């Protein structure tokens, strides 16, 4: 009894640990029934071509024919002319994967025959029509240790209900007397060969193709995105879901993210073939990765200010707000260094994406010997919103900044009224920093897509804690 109690306690502890270490995805890909149907159409086209290349073995046998006796026959050079799969359906199977059902398939073959009985020998050709082929293929979905998706054949059955053989030649009538034995052998050969072709196609073609789904994507030289699966793909009655880690990281130094992704309450939307759910975790890890990689440090110089801005970046302009600048550093060029003391943290809601970044703005005077003299340090905050879209398989966006707010953190030139330079700093950041950020966002971040997949009919919606992207897909064939 004591040992049973220990076993129960250990089981409960194991369950608790499993629950507490369960990982929510930062990014979810959902393929709807419409998407699965499209994938099935593409797969059936490939399978038809593979089956049309089917090589059938020569075979021979003996049969007894009434009033004729023992007849020895040989069939050779079997050639498959056509193999058509006109009706098929793909269905998700919970906890397994996918089932592909094929009905009313048909094929046509021809070949040569040779017969021998008593002292008579003859040969000729034959035509074979195979009708009412029914197939059921079970595809098991999973993931390997690297987080890549896997697919394998968990089961295959092929049933041929109708085979018709027509022999030509002088003794063709004789073959037609025992065609049932030949048809039975051909049916068995075809049923076995069809499932062999299916298994090889899944392993050599489909498995190879789905491994083109990127587990990691490199962005520039400093940042990567982790799109590895955190669990095997899940199937429901209406869709196939893939839970991905969805995490940005610094290539130089990857560390644990100090927060976890929240569960994604995916809506029951099936208008598009595929949906992508990008959580606030996904975007916030981008902020952490860019901050750690030192990619959120910007400099503003005179050369970056547009000519139509109406001012120059020098101490003469800023002496209107800080009179002591003219005394210490008369008419000297200036430079600003902008950096984030902490990674920006954004929120996603039905109204969109927004965040309030804190930016340190260090101002310098550029001395005649090109050295820098620190002037003052400002803290800059503002309400920022983002516009998101998808272009060429990438998430692209742009930022819009509301009126910024300034506060003085430190000054080497004495105190001054920060609010007096509010408008000037607003113009300065909107003409220099914002265009640089938007240019980077316009380059975009790659979505986890298989090779040769193109997206169209894009849908963008915001939900609590995640961004939902929907699209139809098109597979672009080579050549």
Please explain how this structure is put together.
- It is built from nine helices and 25 strands.
- With 479 residues, it is an alpha+beta fold.
- A six-stranded antiparallel β-sheet has the order 10-11-1-13-25-24.
- The longest helix has 32 residues, at 179-210.
- Residues 1-22 have low confidence and may be disordered.
Notable features of this structure?
rod-shaped, 6-stranded antiparallel β-sheet, 9 helices, 25% helix, alpha+beta, 44% strand, disordered N terminus, 25 strands, 479 residues
Q: Roughly what is the average pLDDT, rounded to an integer?
A: 88
Q: Which regions are unreliable across 5 or more consecutive residues at pLDDT < 50?
A: 1-22
Overall shape: rod-shaped
Number of helices: 9
Distance between the termini: 70 Å
